[in-house]
Known about the structure:
- By secondary structure, this protein is an all-alpha fold.
- Helices cover 79% and strands 0% of the residues.
- The protein has helices spanning 3-19, 24-31, 35-50.
Amino acid sequence: MNTSEQLRYWLIELLAWWEGHVNASDLAREFKITRQSASKSINQYLSHRTKK
Protein backbone atom coordinates (compact mmCIF):
# COMPACT_ATOMS: atom_id res chain seq x y z
CA MET A 1 0.00 0.00 0.00
CA ASN A 2 1.47 3.35 -0.98
CA THR A 3 1.36 6.61 0.97
CA SER A 4 -1.54 8.13 -0.96
CA GLU A 5 -3.65 5.02 -0.33
CA GLN A 6 -2.79 5.15 3.36
CA LEU A 7 -3.85 8.80 3.54
CA ARG A 8 -7.11 8.06 1.74
CA TYR A 9 -7.87 5.14 4.06
CA TRP A 10 -7.05 7.31 7.06
CA LEU A 11 -9.50 9.97 5.89
CA ILE A 12 -12.16 7.34 5.17
CA GLU A 13 -11.83 6.06 8.73
CA LEU A 14 -11.80 9.57 10.18
CA LEU A 15 -14.92 10.64 8.29
CA ALA A 16 -16.71 7.40 9.17
CA TRP A 17 -15.91 7.86 12.85
CA TRP A 18 -16.49 11.60 13.05
CA GLU A 19 -19.46 12.07 10.73
CA GLY A 20 -20.87 8.56 10.67
CA HIS A 21 -20.60 8.26 6.89
CA VAL A 22 -18.21 8.67 3.98
CA ASN A 23 -18.96 9.74 0.44
CA ALA A 24 -16.88 9.90 -2.70
CA SER A 25 -17.42 13.64 -3.13
CA ASP A 26 -15.71 14.43 0.18
CA LEU A 27 -12.75 12.24 -0.67
CA ALA A 28 -12.51 13.61 -4.21
CA ARG A 29 -12.55 17.20 -2.98
CA GLU A 30 -9.91 16.62 -0.31
CA PHE A 31 -7.46 14.75 -2.54
CA LYS A 32 -8.31 16.53 -5.81
CA ILE A 33 -9.18 13.29 -7.57
CA THR A 34 -12.20 12.27 -9.62
CA ARG A 35 -15.33 11.00 -7.93
CA GLN A 36 -14.78 7.69 -9.69
CA SER A 37 -11.28 7.36 -8.20
CA ALA A 38 -12.64 8.26 -4.78
CA SER A 39 -15.39 5.67 -5.11
CA LYS A 40 -12.81 3.07 -6.12
CA SER A 41 -10.72 3.93 -3.04
CA ILE A 42 -13.75 3.54 -0.78
CA ASN A 43 -14.61 0.18 -2.33
CA GLN A 44 -11.00 -1.01 -2.00
CA TYR A 45 -11.00 0.09 1.63
CA LEU A 46 -14.23 -1.79 2.31
CA SER A 47 -12.89 -4.88 0.54
CA HIS A 48 -9.68 -4.73 2.54
CA ARG A 49 -11.55 -4.27 5.84
CA THR A 50 -13.86 -7.25 5.24
CA LYS A 51 -10.92 -9.61 4.55
CA LYS A 52 -9.54 -9.26 8.08
